[in-house]
Design a protein that fits this description.
Strand content of chain A: under 5%
Largest sheet of chain B: 6 strands, mixed
Number of domains of chain B: 1
Structural class of chain A: mainly alpha
CATH superfamily of chain B: P-loop containing nucleotide triphosphate hydrolases
Mean pLDDT of chain B: 94
Radius of gyration of chain A: 19 Å
Bound molecules: adenosine-5'-triphosphate, magnesium ion
Shape of chain B: globular
Largest sheet of chain A: 2 strands, antiparallel
Oligomer: heterodimer
Low-confidence stretches of chain A: none
Number of helices of chain A: 12
Number of strands of chain B: 10
Shape of chain A: globular
Strand content of chain B: 15-25%
Chain lengths: 298, 249
């Protein structure tokens, strides 16, 4: 049973980079980016092919992130240069990526059993799951640390301001288009990193593994956002940690639902309803209190 | 310094809703001048600033800044020379970012935003000292979100921010419209000081006709997208308030 929740913990950490990526696009840049489904699978597919060809996982790591970044740049270019709605730009790239992923993978499913992976390279503990958990944990902690640093730098301030007030940033000498493209590149590189981790953790890559994954990341970010507003957290490092916590809460709810014996076929429906609840509950409680939805921000 | 040649700006050109916001305007503004622009609502004042700053491109005509043709240069590149206080107080600052973050960006207006942490104790002290000059008591709130401040406070800070980095041109679009009389005076004195001491070329749009007499060394009256009057320092000195009121009849 505890194994059950540990698995959820491990999965939530592996999906953590993707949630952080969605945090960057959605909360920092105010862009609804759903390239995610495609770039997540892209990360997994690149991982599977390169590992099968005996590349070192440590080399596959950056290659994967690069592939995701390229996907993000595509969405960014379509959105900013062709002035196409971000949502549509994401859908276009995601759709295109399905074929790209299929071509890279060569077939719809590649197992990674008995392969040299990032997780098999270390043996701190006897239990395999603990090893996997500690490796993933180290990665996500370094990642949060780096992202926190990035967002506190002058460049990071420019990133945050661009999503917050694009009129102001233009008058501050910021090229909004360029910075959005960079943001989408970072976000999708992180998403591909999740694909890299999950593929090795689950020991397979599947062409359909990314379908609907964006909702998982979105759920994590929405949970985090609710907590950030509720506890009035302004420190960026803490906000990033809460995104990880959001990812964990999300996976635990799913694990719990499965443990209750719900048909796995209903899992996506449960996920969608859960996200709906996260979005709707704060609004409904606000309406109940009769207050106008205005946080003093305009 | 700033030279506009035969600038026109049409909105919704060719449609029934067509507006001629600027109608064949030519204007030469010299370095260090403090130009005050008055004119009725909709006479094209804001549009003129937008065109100088680059947030809108003219339909026809050319703009030169420092003898360089900038007509098609995007706004973010023109910010090298131009700082601006917007008519809407919400436009000039990022509400979710702290006051300090906002000032950091302003301090880098003409420079690269690099991967270094630029906010240190020295920078905080500098910002606090600047803000203290306003006398609004905001110097102890620099960690707070900009959005928590009132419109007038934000507008005053926006003006301060425009002087955080070197600027040749300062565009002020009704900067005191949202301010109480005391804050308005503080802001106007600050603008005046920036013009006098740093020689920043300043263009001020105002509906406060007293201010239009009290400040600046050139007065332009805009009407229906054209420059109806352009008074130099001497002509402006002899001007009386009732005369300006008559322009609006
Ligand atoms: N984006 C736009 N689209 C269509 N028409 C516009 C646009 N911006 C301005 N206009 C029109 O151009 C004309 C000039 O507007 P502008 O904002 O420059 O006036 P203003 O002199 O600044 O007025 P106010 O004193 O009210 O600020 C007005 O008739 C306005 O309706
Ligand atoms: Mg105006």
């Amino acid at each position: 049973m505890s194994q059950f929740y540990l698995t959820a913990l491990q999965l939530s950490i592996c999906l953590g980079p993707m949630a952080l990526g969605i945090f960057i696009t959605m909360k920092i840049f105010n862009i609804p980016d759903i390239t995610t489904d495609g770039s997540y699978t892209l990360g997994a597919v690149v991982t599977a092919v390169l590992l099968t060809n005996h590349w070192s996982p440590l080399v596959v790591f950056p290659v994967c992130m690069l592939s995701g970044a390229i996907a993000g740049v595509c969405t960014g270019l379509i959105h900013t240069k062709l002035k196409i709605d971000a949502l549509l730009a994401g859908i276009l790239v995601m759709t295109g990526l399905y074929s790209v992923n299929l071509i890279i993978l060569g077939r719809s499913n590649v197992p990674l059993i008995n392969m040299h992976t990032l997780f098999s390279g270390f043996s701190f503990f006897h239990t395999e799951l603990y090893n996997e958990l500690s490796v993933a944990l180290v990665i996500i902690i370094i990642l949060i640390f780096l992202l926190r640093y990035l967002l506190l730098t002058d460049f990071g301030i420019a990133m945050r301001a661009t999503g917050n007030n694009p009129v102001m940033t233009k008058s501050m000498g910021i090229n909004n288009d360029a910075i959005k493209i960079i943001g989408l590149a970072i976000a999708n590189a992180l998403t591909a990193l999740s694909g890299f981790l999950v593929a090795q953790y689950q020991s397979f890559a599947d062409i359909n593994m990314g379908i609907g994954i964006v909702i998982t990341g979105l759920g994590a970010v929405l949970i985090a956002d609710a907590l950030i507003i509720w506890m009035n957290i302004t420190r960026i490092g803490l906000q990033l940690l809460l995104v990880l916590a959001g990812s964990l809460i999300f996976q635990l709810v799913l694990a719990f639902t499965l443990a209750m014996g719900i048909d796995p076929n209903f899992l996506k429906l449960v996920t969608a309803v859960f996200v709906l609840l996260i979005v709707a509950l704060p609004r409904m409680s606000q309406q109940l209190r009769g207050s106008i939805s205005n946080n003093g921000k305009t | 310094m700033i030279s506009l040649q035969k600038i026109s700006k049409f909105f919704n050109k060719g449609k029934p809703t067509e507006v001629i916001a600027l109608n064949d305007i030519s204007l030469q503004i010299n370095k260090g001048e403090f130009v005050v622009i008055v004119g009725a609502n909709g006479s094209g004042k804001t549009t003129l600033l937008n065109i100088i700053e680059g947030s809108q491109l003219p339909t026809t005509g050319t703009i030169r800044i420092n003898d360089q043709d900038v007509t098609s240069l995007p706004e973010y590149k023109r910010s090298r020379w131009v700082a601006r206080v917007f008519q809407d107080p919400h436009n000039g600052t990022a509400p979710d970012l702290s006051i300090l973050d906002n000032f950091r960006l302003a301090a880098l207006r003409t420079q690269g935003k690099n991967l270094v942490i630029g906010i240190n104790e020295a920078f905080k002290k500098k910002v606090q000292a600047k803000i203290a000059e306003l006398g609004m008591g905001l110097e102890n709130k620099i960690g707070q979100a900009m959005g928590n401040l009132s419109g007038g406070q934000r507008q005053a800070l926006t003006l301060l921010m425009s002087a955080m980095d070197h600027t040749d041109i300062l565009l002020l679009d009704e900067p005191t419209a949202a301010l109480d009389p005391k804050s308005a005076l503080v802001v106007m004195n600050l603008a005046n000081k920036l013009n006098r001491e740093l020689g920043i070329t300043t263009i001020l749009i105002t509906h406060n006709l007293k201010d239009s007499l009290a400040y600046g060394n050139r007065l332009i009256h805009m009407r229906e997208g054209k420059i109806a009057r352009d008074l130099n320092s001497k002509e402006k000195t002899g001007l009386l308030l009732p005369e300006i009121y008559q322009w609006f009849e």
